[in-house]
Amino acid sequence: MKTADEVQNILNGFTCNREVSVEIYESYGRVLFDDVYSKVDVPLCDKSTVDGYAITNEGLNNDFLVISDEIHAGDPADMLINPGKCIWVATGSNIPKNTDRIIPFENTINSENTIRIVKMTKNSNIFKKGTDIPKNTKVLDKNTLIDEKAIGILASIGMDKINVYDTPKVAILSVGSELSEINEVNSKTLTAIVRKAGCEPVFLGVVEDSIEKITSAIKNAVLQYDIVVTSGGTSKGKKDYMFEIISSIGDILFHKVKSIPGMPIFAGKVSEKPIICLPGNVASCLVCGYAYLLPMFLNAAHKTFKRELVTADLSEEFNSELGIKHYFPVKLKDGIAYPAFRGSNMITSIANADGLVDVSENEVKVRKNVKIWLI
């Protein structure tokens, strides 16, 4: 039997390292496969930061300058500023190569097609080529989680596609002949956990209590998916075959964990693919989903797992068993945490909870200033 930390370390040893190329429009929430370097300067050329007039330094010696042309945003700027002349430019437009500064429109007096400069600014009002991002600069690191800011950078350097880690595909199997007679819950809650981690869930259906059928389903699943999760068949009943099956077709990574609920959880490896077998009780299954699978799935997708914690006093003292970790569901009200657990087979034990009290193996009594993991 492993500790909770040992189990998590084992599960976090599996990652999905396939590379895929996706459109920038579809890249939000994905993780970069490589460092990204800009192949261009941003901006690509010098641009005006104001509406005004492009001039050369020699033009400052003239009382008046003749407006010889106009450049709007998106127009080419393939002309030059001739002596005694200026060119009207829009904010964000390209500017002639021999421009030394832009005089803002409001700093001039216009008379037909000429201007007179009445006020100078300290800066040139020129957004120089490569000022934002110089060519060949690394703009994003490998393993960066792509958000709206990263997408802005990728778009600014002209990338239409980007290489990211492929999304891990998680197969879900519910085991138990009795499930055809009731409203099956675990596959739905586990599907939500998979999606919460940004992975792709695939429900393969309910498999009846048959060694042959369960074995066949698992063998087929590992050929197509990165991770396989089952619920049910992990306890000591006469038809709880999961441990026997995984032992016969693969390797056992751990059997049982020193935590409650969820002690019967075990995992194996078949064809190098991890198989995580969860207890069938709905509350235990979902707690295991939060405690072990969510961090595992995020890690497999090269993402970071972080608990949102708050501190509160318990409404009553909780007594734990030394050497056993407890995940204790609680309901928060007015800064007090009230017990929500009603039994491993009751979905309301976890569905009505705001968080889980993580009672470590070294604690036997907790009441004051308890850290609660919000779920």
How would you describe this protein?
The structure is a single chain. This protein is an alpha+beta fold. It has four domains: 149 residues, 3-Layer(aba) Sandwich (Molybdenum Cofactor Biosythetic Enzyme, Chain A), CATH 3.40.980; 55 residues, Molybdopterin biosynthesis moea protein, domain 2 (Alpha-Beta Complex); 81 residues, Molybdopterin biosynthesis moeA protein, domain 3 (Beta Complex); 66 residues, Beta-clip (Beta Barrel), CATH 2.40.340. The chain has seven helices and 26 strands. The strands form seven sheets. Strands 7-4-6-5-9-8 form a six-stranded mixed sheet, with no helix packed on it. The protein has a six-stranded mixed sheet with strand order 14-13-15-19-18-16, sandwiched between helices. A hairpin with a 2-residue loop joins strand 8 and strand 9. The two termini are 27 Å apart. The relative contact order is 0.13.
Straight-line N-to-C gap = 27 Å
Structural class of the secondary elements?
alpha+beta
| Rg over alpha carbons | 32 Å
Number of domains: 4
Taken from the alpha-carbon principal axes, the silhouette is: elongated
Protein name: Molybdopterin molybdotransferase MoeA
Pathway: Cofactor biosynthesis; molybdopterin biosynthesis
InterPro entries: MoaB/Mog-like_dom_sf (IPR036425), MoaB/Mog_dom (IPR001453), MoeA-like (IPR038987), MoeA_C_domain_IV (IPR005111), MoeA_C_domain_IV_sf (IPR036688), MoeA_linker/N (IPR005110), MoeA_linker/N_sf (IPR036135)
GO molecular function: molybdopterin molybdotransferase activity
